[in-house]
Design a protein that fits this description.
Layout: E1 8-13, H1 20-31, E2 42-47, H2 50-55, H3 70-73, H4 83-95, E3 106-112, E4 120-123, H5 129-142, E5 149-151, E6 168-174
InterPro entries: AspA/AstE_fam, AstE_AspA_cat
Family: Belongs to the AspA/AstE family. Aspartoacylase subfamily.
GO molecular function: hydrolase activity, acting on carbon-nitrogen (but not peptide) bonds, in linear amides; hydrolase activity, acting on ester bonds; metal ion binding
Length: 175
């Protein structure tokens, strides 16, 4: 498959404000982005849920990683709209719009888990040839480290995760 080159990549941390590995990495790269920059590629580290990070809680009003659906993204902004819905709309404006040709090519969404799953990559579609090849490369580059890939695909499921804004969404979980 001949895909256009990846030109814009975002690295998200803090989708859940109490998952600090991604928060620390994003803040580090915002201060010193040289180690993630590559010629011909824009790489943007981004703190997705700063209010939850400040409170060190999973979310403020609702789970940011569940509100990137058409209903919430198209919701009228009113005073009492949940913080994470408003934030999803802002993220969609910056990195999307979701499902469009203008959306970022790739979003890495960094998470922590208390499950004993080590470093795990999350794949949302078995039909995304680019992401499958990228995961293959990552797994080979990490050898002999164990790096499982979890496919969370369902034919009737429309993903509402932060990373689903991108053409190629990638979740990375670390325990």
């Amino acid at each position: 498959v001949d895909n256009p080159p990846v030109r814009r990549v975002a690295i998200f941390g803090g989708t859940h404000g109490n998952e600090l590995s991604g928060v620390f990495l994003v803040k580090h790269w915002q201060e010193n982005g040289a180690e993630i920059q590559r010629r011909g590629v824009e790489v943007k580290p981004f703190l997705t849920n700063p209010r939850a990070v400040k409170k060190c809680t999973r979310y403020v009003d609702c789970d940011l990683n569940r509100v990137f659906d058409p209903d919430n993204l198209g919701r009228t902004v009113v005073e009492d709209i949940p913080y994470e819905v408003r934030r999803a709309q802002e993220i969609n404006h910056i990195f999307g719009p979701k499902g469009s040709d203008d959306a970022y090519d790739l979003i890495f969404d960094l998470h922590n888990t208390t499950s004993n799953m080590g470093g795990t990559l999350i794949l949302e579609s078995s039909r995304d040839d680019f992401t499958i090849q990228m995961f293959h490369y990552i797994k080979n580059a990490l050898a002999p480290e164990h790096c499982p890939v979890l496919l969370i695909e369902h034919p009737s499921l429309k993903y509402a995760t932060t990373r689903s804004v991108a053409k190629h969404p990638v979740g990375k979980y670390e325990s």
